[in-house]
Amino acid sequence: MLDLDNVTVRYGNRVTALEAATADFPVGRFIVLLGSSGAGKSTLLRCLNGLVRPTSGKVRTEDGGNILGSIAALRRHRQRTGMIFQQHHLIGRLTALQNVLTGRLSFHGTLRSLLPLPKADKIIALEALDRVGLADRALHRADQLSGGQQQRVGIARALAQQPLAILADEPVASLDPATADKVLALLHRICREDGITAIVSLHQVELARRYGDRIYGLAAGRIVFDGTSDTLDAAALERIYGTVAKPVPRPQPDLNSAPLKMAKTA
């Protein structure tokens, strides 16, 4: 279990990015964060792995400990919390395998990580690539892969941590709809098989409905919806996204207001 307890994040310019957020993320569930850009989804995700420190409130792990309680506690938490990014964050000149191996660096000291990693780590990385269907691309440079393949390498890198939780920040936003669905289905299946808690921010409402066990909707830094896909109705979407203005109809010419000019005939 991972949870937020009344977490608020305010920046130095007095902007409130997250306001009194309380949420729980049960083990093995696929949880989706919905909301407009700037609603607080990324801030919430970054609180969950300590990249953003709450102004107030706590982020707790399954044993009830605060992830920011000590440097050692934060390191243990990050070791078993994978992160997937919208723009992949791969090193283009490195192979897919080398990129996945970076997911093992936190399990080694600084000096040891400067040397080639042990064979056991390479086996874990290769197995992760196989899980995402890219074992045959292990020695290809990352910048030679398609966008969908690069994102699958990002998933494999997170899996190489043998994580208890995966945080994914708009992981399919840069992909075309068909590829986005395939990548999200892959992540959903793997998390189900391994009992990994997934917390995924999305813009696509239909993907949230299809894959989310539970959905949190955010607006202006507040959680305004907490429910299942079945309860994500029009009223809930209005709370999350606000009322969408209807287009103003274009005025139609009044054919009776002026006489029609007849074209001259030859």
| Strand residues, percent | 15-25%
Please state the oligomeric state of the protein chains shown: single chain
Assign an overall shape.
Answer: globular
Instruction: Compute the average pLDDT.
Output: 88
**Count the strands?**
9
The separation of the N and C termini measures 85 Å
What is the count of DSSP helices, taking H or I runs of 4+ residues? 9
Layout: helices, strands, pairs:
Layout: E1 2-10, E2 16-25, E3 30-34, H1 41-48, E4 56-60, H2 71-79, E5 81-84, H3 96-101, H4 110-113, H5 119-131, H6 147-159, E6 165-169, H7 177-194, E7 197-202, H8 205-211, E8 214-219, E9 222-227, H9 234-241
Parallel strand pairs: 3-7, 3-8, 5-6, 6-7
Antiparallel strand pairs: 1-2, 1-4, 8-9
Q: How would you sum up this structure, described in words?
A:
The chain is an alpha/beta fold and 266 residues long. It is built from 9 helices and 9 strands. The strands form 2 sheets. A 6-stranded mixed sheet has the order 5-6-7-3-8-9, with helices on both faces. It has a 3-stranded antiparallel sheet with strand order 2-1-4, with helices on one face. The radius of gyration is 23 Å and the shape is globular. The model is unreliable at 244-251 and 257-266 (pLDDT under 50).
